[in-house]
Design a protein that fits this description.
Layout lengths: L1 E9 L4 E10 L11 E6 L5 E4 L5 H6 L3 E4 L8 E7 L4 E7 L5 E11 L1 E4 L4 E5 L2 E2 L4 E5 L6 E11 L21 E6 L15 E4 L6 E3 L4 E7 L5 E2 L2 H4 L5 E5 L5 E5 L13 E2 L4 E4 L4 E2 L5 E8 L4 E3 L4 E2 L5 E2 L6 E3 L6
Parallel strand pairs: 18-23
Antiparallel strand pairs: 1-2, 1-13, 3-4, 3-5, 6-7, 7-11, 7-12, 8-10, 8-13, 9-12, 14-15, 14-28, 15-24, 16-22, 17-19, 17-21, 19-20, 20-24, 24-25, 26-27
Length: about 325
């Protein structure tokens, strides 16, 4: 995510004139609050159009039409101003359940200085950070103004992930699914974030299980459409991101709407049911997209991995291969 904050100060009193925030999205870092529209007629004949579900008792007696509705993206990272107007300080609020790397820069500055100097990168834990930097006028008797821009990447930078870690087939033990696209797939596995990704041809509603233990860092659970228009759908896939203990992150994408079986901040075990496969986002048909990513200095980059079979043998995924599920020891 990239954001710009424009602040202007003028005259000796340094009055704050305006604050304007622009947000543009560039990666799968967004989440939405689940929204449904309930339409029904009560016993008195009155029609209701609401996003609040009727009580369980009422639901059993009423004919209710439920529609999934689009919602606005939820911002997860904020640059916030604190302190005095003459010398404002800034903090970052991180609502992801894991670390992020943030870079803050001036996009414009006149008669202003930063302590410490910008641009600067910070690695931040979840929650609200301590004061990261402060601003002030170089000449206190002259007007000063500035614009700030920040962007972030998920995870700690340059993580030394475990390249020998075991990844189990991410589905129920009694099923087998074919790999329809593997590493360097020419259709959609060409960018840094997905070069080492796997697509599994799974019918909608198939169980998705965690391939490796970790913490749910973020999830998107509310998108309900999919298609081949990359611009329209590339950032609208339901997904679950799980942070592993070595700092790497597994991404499970194109999941069914409103069927996540986990919540953000939840610790999950390898083999645990986490969601159901779907066809949301940039997709030509129902499937599960799975990849492992690390932050390589403000860049989310996918890394190679191997699936472990029931005999404990690990091998890289191959397109056309029939991947077999199995019961693993917990």
């Amino acid at each position: 995510m990239r954001s710009v904050i424009k602040l202007s100060h003028k005259n000796k009193m340094h009055c704050l004139l305006n604050t304007l925030i622009f947000v543009s999205l560039y990666t799968l870092c967004i989440s939405c609050d689940a929204k449904k529209l309930y339409k029904y007629q009560d016993k008195q004949g009155r029609w209701h159009y609401t996003d609040q579900a009727p009580s369980t008792t009422e639901s059993e007696e009423l004919d209710i039409e439920i529609r999934q509705i689009s919602v606005e993206a939820k911002q997860r990272v904020w640059l916030k101003q604190i302190g005095k107007k003459r010398k404002p300080e800034f903090v970052i609020r991180n609502d992801f359940f894991g670390p992020i790397e943030v870079e803050i820069v001036f996009t414009r500055h006149e008669n202003v200085r930063s302590t410490p100097a910008l641009p600067k990168k910070f690695v931040l834990a979840p929650g609200v950070s301590q004061a990261l930097f402060s601003l002030g006028a170089i000449d206190e008797y002259q007007s000063w103004q500035y614009s700030l821009s920040y962007r972030y990447s998920l995870g700690k930078p340059h993580t030394h992930h475990d390249s020998q870690a075991s990844y189990y087939p991410p589905f129920v033990s009694y099923k087998n699914f074919r790999i329809s696209q593997s590493f360097n797939g020419q259709f959609s596995h060409t960018g840094e974030g997905s070069r080492y990704a796997v697509d599994l041809a799974m019918p909608e509603g198939s169980e998705v299980h965690a391939a490796r233990a970790g913490v749910v860092m973020s999830l998107e659970n509310d998108f309900f459409k999919g298609g081949v228009d990359r611009q329209a759908y590339k950032a609208r896939a339901n997904s679950i991101r799980i942070l592993h203990d070595d700092g790497s992150m597994a991404v499970y994408a194109h999941l069914q709407v409103d069927r996540a079986q986990v919540y953000e901040g939840m610790h999950v075990k390898a083999g645990q049911l986490i969601a159901y496969s779907g066809n949301t986002g940039f997709s030509t048909g129902p499937h599960l997209h799975f990849s492992v990513q690390v932050n390589q200095g403000m860049r989310l980059v996918s890394v190679p991995f191997k699936f472990t079979d029931k005999d404990g043998k690990a091998s890289p995924p191959k397109v056309g291969e029939l991947l077999k599920g199995f019961v693993m020891d917990q």
